[in-house]
Every structure is written in C-alpha cells, then in structure tokens.
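User: Can you fold this complex?
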Amino acid sequence: MTAAMSAFFARPWIWSFLGAGVVWLAAVAFTGGYGAGGMLTAALSLAVFMVVVGVGQMFVITLGPGNVDLSLPANIGLASAVAMKTMAGDDRLALLGLAAALASGLAVGVANYLLIWALRIPPIIATLSASFIIQSIDISYGRGLQIKPPPGFADFTNVQLLGVPLLAILTGVFAWVAHVALHRTVWGRSVTAIGQNIRAARLAGIKVEPVRFATYALCGLLGGLNGALLAGYFRGANVDIGNEYLLASIAVVVIGGTSVSGGKANLPGVWGGALFLVLLLTMLNTFGVSAGVRLVATGLIIVAVITAAGGEKEAR
Amino acid sequence: MSAPAAPASFAAAGPDFRRALRAALPALSLGLVVAAIAWLNPRAISYFGFTLMLNLAIPIALATMAQMFVIAGNDLDLSIGPFVGFVCCVSATWLRDAPLLGALTLIGCVAVYAALGALIYWRNLPSIVVTLGMSFVWQGLAILLLPKPGGKAPVWLHAALSVKPPFAPFPILAAALIAAVGWYGLMRTSYGAILRGSGGNALAVRRAGWSLLRAKASLFALAGLFGVLSGMALVGITTSADANIGNGYTLLSIAGVILGGGEFVGGKVSPIGAVFGALTMAMAASPLLTFMRIPPDWQVAANGAILIIVLAARVLVSRSGVER
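Assistant: Here's the predicted assembly.
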C-alpha cells in the first residue's frame, strides 16, 4: 500500500493536478458550491490553448539548456491574423485558413531554427530577434483587421459534449499522441537524449541537427495552430492575442514536472500545469481582487510552485 | 593586443587578430550606426543632437549593466523591464512625497533581488521561470501603486538628469562613467573575478573556498541596484511615470549585453561592451530609424534585424567551434 502510494507521488505530474484541484476547491468554497461545474468547463476550454503551445515548448525545452522559444506570442498573433484573413468569414474556407495558419507557424519555426543554426547563437536570442520581425509583419499585415471568424469555425472551437469542450477532447487525444511520440519514437527519444548530453547523443550517432530542426518546426507549427484556434474562440484576430502565452507556455511545462535544463519531459504534467494556471486565475477572479493584486498573486504563486518543486539535484 | 604587422604571418597571428576584431565589434557597430545617422542627417551630429538622440541612453545603459551582472552568473533576468517600471512608479510617488519611505522601498528592492539570487542558488532554480514570475509581481505592484499614468519626478532627480556639462553631452559622459564603474568593479577587483568565476567555473570557485551562495546573491543585488538606478534615471528624464514604462527594457537590456560581446554561459561579459551595446540599441531604436524614414510599423523589425546583423558579423569574425 505504502509502496503504491509512494510510486503514485513519485510521478512528477501528480502535483500539478493536485494543485489544480486545491485552487478549484478554494474557488468553489468561496462561491459556496455555485458554478463548480461551469468553472471546470471554462477551465478546460482555456487550458486547451496552453496545452497546445505548452507541448511545443516542452519539446524545445527538453532539447537542453538555453533552448526555449520566445517567439510564440508573435507567432500566435501572426497566425491568428493569417487564419482570419484566409477564412474571410466563409465556412467553406475554414480548412484552408487553418492550413494557412499552420503554414505561417511552420515558417516561423523553420526561420527560428535557421537563425540558430546559421548564426550559432543561443536559441533565446535567436527566437527573440525573430519575434521582433514577426511582430512587425503582424502589425503591418493585420492593421485594423476586423474580420470575424466564420460562424461554423467559431462554433467548432466553442462546442461542448456533455459539458466537456470538444477542443479539450481533441487536445487530450493530441497530448496522448505526443506522449507516445516522446517515449516511443526515434525522434522523441532523440530529443530527450540530446537534452541529457548533446555530445554523447552526437557520438551515439543521433543526427542532432535534423532533430533540432524538427523540434523547432513543430513548436512553430503548434503556435500557428494555437493562433487559429484562439481567433476562432475569441471571435477575431489581434496582435496581442498571444501575449500571455510566453509565460504560460514555459510555466505549464515547468509546473508539470519537465526539467528546465532539458533531457526530462513529462506530458500529463502539461495538462496539469495548464489546468492549475487557468483555475488559479479563475479563483483570483472569483475572489474579485483588482488587476494589480491578481498579477502579484500569480507571480508569487509561480515562484512558490517552482521553489517547492525544486531544481535539478546535480553535483555542484 | 595589436593587429598583426605583417599579413604574411596571418596564420600565426590569426586568432589574436580575430580576438581583437571581436573585442572591437561593439564599438564598430556603434560607429556604424553613428556614421549612418551622420550620413542621413549631418545636423544631428552636434552637442544638442546627441543630447536629444541619447536622451534615453542612460536608463538603457543602466538596465543593460543590471542584466549583465545576472548573465555573468549564467542566469537571465526576464523581470528587469517591469522592475524598472516599478522603480519609476516608486520614484514618481513615494520618493517625492515621502522620501524616507521611498528610499527604504528602493533599498528593499535591492534586498529582494539579493534574496532572489540566494533562492535561485539554494534551490537550484531556473532563473528564467523565477524572473518571469517576478515580472508579474513587479508589474502588479506598479499598477497598485500607480493605476493611471502620472506622478511627478522629485525635483532634485529631474535637475540631476538635465545638467548640461561643457564640451560633451551629458548622456555620453554618464555612459562613460557607467562603463568605467562596471569595468573597474567586475574586471579589476578581486571579488569581481570571483563573481565572473562563479559563472565560468562554479566548481573551481567553490573548491577555492568561496561561497557560491554569496556570489549569486551579490550578482543579483548588483542587478537590483543598477535596476533601481535605471528606473530613477528614467523617471528623472520623463518626469512622470506609468506602470508599463519599463516593459521594453527586458529585451533592450538582453540585446545590449549580447551586442556588447557577452555570452549566455561561461561568465563571459564585458561591461564596456555592454554600454556600447546599450548605446547602439538606444541610437538604433528610434533616431536612426526615424532618419531612415522607416514607418513605425517596421521599427520593431528593424531592431530585430540590427541584432541579427551584428550577431552574424560576430559569427564571421570568430568561428569558434563551441558545442551549443
């Protein structure tokens, strides 16, 4: 029994789900049980967007120290504009618009990798420089964009089955596929190996650069997908639509038990981390605190969570 | 370190020459930006021209120095922008109305930074996540303190930043002073060497008997101190504050350190280079682009492009086969 218990708690993602449960209970206790189910439905809807980019960021972070994609907010903003312009409010063009957003995201991911590879600079600064340029393209391209998403596409991003958002179910399937890809495919295991020791991975015959290329391209692609979905859900594109996903994408990965120094990834934790973050914001909203207090509380809780989770135990 | 006298001995002198070229790159990029401005608008190259163009260079240079201390210890501070904004809000309200409370708050900020450094070392935390979290905290505190743009800089602070010294514009003198202080403190004192060593080879520094905890806390305290100075300088120039005033400084400061020849790992930073990098970013950020008639939409992109070009130039002069 105790062995089963300790095995249960040894899983790093358990804590993120426990945390999510605690903040949900706190919010429900405050409202006296009112809206408990609605809160979960809303949290699932919003967590989807964090999971989509979180999974991409997780693979990038797992590549090792310094690997992080800071261009996600700009990428999401551009993709949302591309999706809305291509769809032009017409349901028949919805799939084409989705494909265009994916292509836009993929292009950003490829550009990121080319900068890292050609300039031999740390990914942080490469994706940062790229995000400046993408942001300008978005400002110029999406200026005064007032196109609403096609009604069918907007409904698709909002529809629920028995209180569970369809997107959440699809994202759950997607997360399971990513989980299998991480642990059972050559690419996923290569990502982990590179994160653990890039030199050893290279000597073991892993083709490091193609794996890195695929990982950054995937992260860009998922950013593009997220842009299109967000534009559908919030009924319109916007330059700032992706801003909160810089912190969120990194935070859900870390809260979920993935190692920031790479080499150790955890997929269920991305879902747990996303639910925790969304429910945390829901709880603070329920308490009716001001914007300033909400920001301070979010920041302090993130610092507290990462402190409690602790860093890598390595020989110093 | 001098350039080789005879090109015939290039093979032998190559690495030295390249190293010198690499060290001169921050100054070269600044020179290039100034030359471009001079070519586009010769009248800008004057005492008043520089005073205007480098208006915001002092806070940017101070924020870049703050970021440089953090990067010297292999960390990254993603909260320096909102922190500078918070300091602005404190300076424009409490420091003017209740100087003692304001001064204590600012000293407390430095202490919080030192504590963050200690926490990051003690729990071996990723600084990116901790400082991202802190960026929310500083932003929230700034909004609580100053919900609407406003406040007023203390008179003495505004006066200190509007002095017009003879011969050289004030921002240039201030930048030289900042560079000199940073250079002496980090490159010429013995504890500065320990601080850089904690980023270069932490194990060696610890085995030599130095406390890494103290080194990390010191680096973050220095970052906090320079962040406070940056916020005070910024509000002294703009005379009023806004909770979002410093948000761009996170990116500017990282870019400045990297342009100045700093590396993300290994404790390799250069205080003088960082100030050159900050001046380059300050000049390239708006004066150059305005003179080039680049529409506002594309100014952010131009900043990114300048960063990429300088980094590309660096790759060309130093092809180090370092494992990434």
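Chain B is about 70% helix and 0% strand. Residues 1-12, 320-324 of chain B have pLDDT under 50 and may be disordered.
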